[in-house]
Amino acid sequence: MAHHDDNFKDESGIVPIIVGIVILVGMSALPATIGWIQAFGN
Fold first, then answer.
1. How far apart are CA 37 and CA 42, in angstroms?
2. DSSP assignment of 9-31, as one string?
3. Transmembrane residues, as ranges (predicted)?
4. How far apart are CA 42 and CA 35, in angstroms?
5. pLDDT tens digits for range 1-42
6. Is the dihedral of CA 29, 31, 34, 35 positive or negative?
7. CA distance 33 to 21
8. What's this model's pTM, rounded to 2 decimal places?
9. Cα–Cα distance measured from residue 31 to residue 33, given in angstroms and rounded to the nearest whole number
């Protein structure tokens, strides 16, 4: 049987959430970013 440690904090669950939020914001901002590049790239 596994030993239970009350002081152990599992922080691995927060990393995929942060990555998902970053990807979501990045995908939402992608059309605007493309527009800025096209507007100021010429």
1. 8
2. ---TTHHHHHHHHHHHHHHHHHH
3. 14-37
4. 12
5. 567 777 777 667 788 889 999 999 989 999 888 888 899 886
6. negative
7. 17
8. 0.49
9. 5
